[in-house]
Structure formats: structure tokens, C-alpha cells
Amino acid sequence: MPANSWPENDSYNEFDPLNSLFSELSANEESVEEASNSMSLPSRFQGRRRKAALVLTIVWSGTFALHLVSWSFLFVIGLTTVIGIHALVLVFTKPRQQALEMQGHWPYVSVLVAAKNEEAVIGNLVKNLCSLEYPEDRYEVWIVDDNSTDSTPQLLAALAQEYHQLKVLRRDSKATGGKSGALNQVLPLSKGEIVAVFDADAQVEEDLLLRVIPLFQREKVGAVQVRKAIANAQENFWTKGQMVEMAVDTFFQQQRTAIGGIGELRGNGQFVRRKALVDCGGWNEETITDDLDLTIRLHLNSWDIECVFYPTVEEEGVTSAIALWHQRSRWAEGGYQRYLDYWDLILRNRMGTRKTWNLFIFLLIMYILPTAAVPDLLMALTRHRPPILSPVSGLTVTMSIAGMFAGLRRIRQNQEFKLSTYFLLLLQTLRATLYMFHWIVVISATTARMSVRPKRLKWVKTLHTGSSNPI
């Protein structure tokens, strides 16, 4: 597949094979900075540590400066006003109406799953994906066994005899690129006009394809992301928090697309038009979050991404604080990494004004302000005064709370609402608000670490145990 390397003349659609970028990586998975000493990597993906250090320096020094200049209060109030107006428009815009039925022929769909040591869930996954309500001759299921060392290969071999839609590709021990490499390797073997990607623990409703594929009738739609639902949501505090987190995430994604902003992919339960995927050069093997990286490249190539509440894809939520820390740190770094990689194309307004502005506000709220919270608190303690960013921080927390409540309500959009229902939603929102404060710690730590130590490019596997508790 073509890679995501831009020549100096900014010819965005010209790429080199992605896999060739990793063919020289050693078996011990050197970091990008270390590997760049021994191989030629696209310049766009070099120097992330220096870029991160520069941004961190600017954020910290800028926050310190706000405590020392006389006009800082006016600046913060102005910033709060701008974000507040954006928030009001975002929250009160009606979601876009989605296509309900397919007009014309049904596109061929290739369902792809990259799996490694998934013996606990692979059986349920295959049975689920091979039993979808869709013309049997119009979809296929590809499982990429990424050199599993448990019983996954044997289970897949037996399942392939039972389900004719199932096709299996086994990678050898020298294969590189993680999940992106696995998907790039199987893509030429698949033949779908629409490519769906799921994680190994995914479980979906039988009519998933019937409800999602019609959305591609709008020609500018390059991808669709369905809401991720937490299968083991009732297990503990962490999984309950993740359930609400996914609801608020989908709510804001829907609202962002409704105002002409950025819709984002979330990996599990993503559907991509093959034409758009090829146009963007396939999956990037130089990122740790292939979905977030592909999101930016799709929008840079003038494709839209739709995000829907229904249907959903169920997945297992991590069940401990340590597992959540590792997972969210990876998500935070991958999300931040895309700004470092594509900052110049974003500033050139390649996406269009609405998308660029929406992306900037998202960067400010999700990455810059949490990073600035640490120096702001330090200066506040030193000077015995309230944090200077309190107004804008309070606004973003309020936005989060409102989004959580609205997201939970949208999940229950077809249910009758009583006073007890609102009380339950309020309790879930308050509990999730406490849970979401972990993001400030994650972002602060991640942005600081990225400035000092490079991330190793490796597929960080989330343990799947086959949980199937109701949401």
C-alpha cells in the first residue's frame, strides 16, 4: 500500500509503499528517533520529540507569563468567551439526518480484524461477524493472525471450515508495523468497496451493515464511526466511567460534524471507503494510533467522517486504573502526535476553515489547557492567588458535564423518560465527571514525556477476557 509521505512540492496524493518504511526496523522495535539514524524516514514523522519539547516550552512559559502581565485577565476572559460561543453552537446544533435505506446496489464489504493471542474472544467474534444480515455474496471477513502463540491459529482453522465468508491471513514473526502493518498487508487481498475494521473483542448487532452502509451514499463520506459501547460497563468504577466517556465522545463527534467540523475514527467499529483509504495512502505504520492518524489524513484529503450513536459495537473496557493509564496514555500520545506530524498542512487550511477552526478548539480544550493546568497551579500556589485559567477551565468542565448528560440521554432516545430516569442520568454524569479528571493527569504526563523520551513503535495489546456483561 502507498505510504503517507509528502514530497517537498506538497503533492499530497503521491506516496511510497508503507511496508517498506518498516522493512529495515530491527526485531527489538527501535523508536522512530533511533531508527531514523539507520534508515530514511519521511521527514514529516521525524523530530517529534523536538516539536513536543517546543510546544511544551511555549505552553509553560506562556502560562507563567499570564501570571506576570497586567492584561492576562482580559486575555483569559476573551478566550473563555470564544470557546463559550463555540460550545453553545456545538451543543444546540441539530445532528445531521442519516440515510436509512440503501438506494441501488449493495456495495461489497470487507470486514477486517487484526488479532494476536485472542483465543478467549476469537470464536464469538467470528460467529458474530459471519452471521450479519447482509447479502452473503456481498461481504467477506478477514482475520489477520499476527503470529499468535496461543490457540488462536487452531481455532481460526476450525472456524474457516464452518464459515465460508471467513478468510485467514497469518503473519510471520518478522512482520512489522503492528495493527497498521497487519491491515495494510491484508488490504490488497480484500475486495470490498467499503472496509470495516473491528477489534478482536468486538460484538455487533446483526443488522449493523444494513444500517451503516447506506451512509456512504453521500459521495463525500470517506468513513463512518459507530459508537463504542462497553460490554462490561457494570463491573466497577472504571468501566462505568468508560461507558459514559464513549457516550460523550460520540455526542461531541456528532455535533462537530453537524457544524461542519471534524468527525473522528475510534479504531473499533470504523468503516472506510476503499477509494478514500487508497487516496490517503493506507494505514500509517509510523503512528501508535492508526485511527486518529487516518482521521487527519482523510480530512486533509477533503473526505468527511460520520459518527453515529446507533448501531454500536461492544468492546471490553479495561478494569483497573493501571490498565486505563496505559491505554489512555497511548491514546493521548497518538492524538497529540498527529498535530506534530501534520501541523503545517493544518495551518495551510487544507481541510477548510470550519474543520480547521474546530480542530484548533479541540486541540486547545483536550491538550493545551490540561497541559497548562500544571504550571498554572504552580504559579497560583507560589503567588498565593487563584489559577489564572480558572474561567476557561471551569467552562471546559461544564461543557464536559453537559456533554455527558446529553450523550447518556441520546443513548436512551427511544425510551420513555421519567423523573427517576433523569436522576439516574445525573448520578452517572457526576460519577463520570470524577472519572474524567484522569485525563488532566494523563495529558500532562504524556506531553512532558514526549518532550524527553520517544515512544516505541509497537502494538500495545489490550487484554481481552471474553466479558459479555450487559451494558
Defining traits:
alpha/beta, 471 residues, 49% helix, globular, eight-stranded mixed beta sheet
The largest sheet is: 8 strands, mixed
Which class of secondary structure composition applies to the elements?
Answer: alpha/beta
Strand order of the largest sheet: 3-2-1-4-7-6-8-5
Q: Sketch the topology as an H/E string, one letter per element.
A: HHHHEHEHEHEEHEHEHHEHHHHH
Return Rg in Å: 22 Å
How many β-strand stretches? Answer: 8
The percentage of residues in β strands lies in 5-15%
Distance between the termini: 38 Å
Helix content: 40-55%
Average pLDDT over all residues:
86
User: Which overall shape is indicated by the principal axes computed on the Cα atoms?
Assistant: globular
Low-confidence stretches: 1-40
Number of helices, where a helix is a run of at least 4 consecutive DSSP H or I residues: 16
Compile the SSE list and pairings.
Blueprint: H1 18-22, H2 32-35, H3 48-66, H4 72-92, E1 109-115, H5 122-129, E2 139-145, H6 152-162, E3 166-170, H7 178-186, E4 194-198, E5 203-204, H8 208-212, E6 221-230, H9 237-258, E7 270-273, H10 274-280, H11 290-300, E8 304-315, H12 321-347, H13 353-383, H14 390-411, H15 419-436, H16 438-450
Parallel strand pairs: 1-2, 1-4, 2-3, 6-8
Antiparallel strand pairs: 4-7, 5-8, 6-7
